[in-house]
Design a protein that fits this description.
The protein is elongated, with a radius of gyration of 32 Å. Among the domains are: 2-74; 248-317. The strands form two sheets. A four-stranded antiparallel beta sheet has the order 4-5-6-7. Strands 1-2-3 form a three-stranded antiparallel beta sheet. It is built from nine helices and seven strands. The chain is α+β, with helices and mostly antiparallel strands.
Length: 317
Amino acid sequence: MIKIFSGTASLLIAISISAYLITFNGGLSDNHTKWGEFGAYIAGTLGTFLTLSSIIMVYIFNKNQITENNNSEKLTRLETRAEHILNVMYEWSVKNHSMLPALERLLEDLDWQKSDVKNSQSDCYMYVRNEKLDKNIVLKSGDAFVILSTYISLTNKEKAKKALIDDDISFIKTDLDTFKAQAGYLVEIVKYMMSRGYDIFLARHMISIIYARIELLHSIEYVDENLYHNIGIIQSLPKKDNSAIMSDVIERLTEDLNSYNRTNNYPFGNYKFNSKEIKFIDLTPNNDSALYSYVIKDCRYNVEYKRSPDEIWVKVN
């Protein structure tokens, strides 16, 4: 809008001066009266428009400033909300409640004979050993994810998935459902924050806190695919060792490509990639995890590069 007013003002000024010069035979005058007449002409033809334009531009500037301040305040509130959710999830996961009933149900389902079990409970740890199977279980607190991962390690993923529907380990279903709901809310907040310029490094840090547990739930098909892939996309972004603000994905990928090229003795040539010449091409999902490979194109040489989830760059063509 400001550009439109500036362009219009410049055009009208040029037209007014040209019309005056053409009508009154052009040229500069050394007569004070002539200059006074010219000033009156400009004031009469452009004064009102320029004054109105100034008022509108000031209004637009103030409105944009207010919007920017409001967005900043909203991001701050959302960050506080996201951190609160993470704190709630953390406090829930480490709460110390009785492990013995949960462990007994787990062992019964696995056909461990009680006579073969030795256990001791101190603080928030429980150690169980099956002498016949020569296997140990160490559980910390009543964390549903520790119980679930232990169950999967002693059985299989298909049985764990069925157990949540039936009665074997359904006693942790409520906790897992709560975590899924909180994770979904957190991801939606983080996505919105990123769309409003929130630092990618900080967003990635928030998501990394819940990533491993989401992967565990996905392994038994107990988490929404959309949530799983949204987390994977954010988690796949290049890491940053400091919290420097860099909200643009292309800049982040370009910096990571330059770092990889430099660290590995310039496999892609002894030059520095420019983010202004880099174009985002595609996201390729990894079948073994939620992580993605990023594909970008160096438009200067028409070459594509792919970044795998294990942070290795390769030339595609």
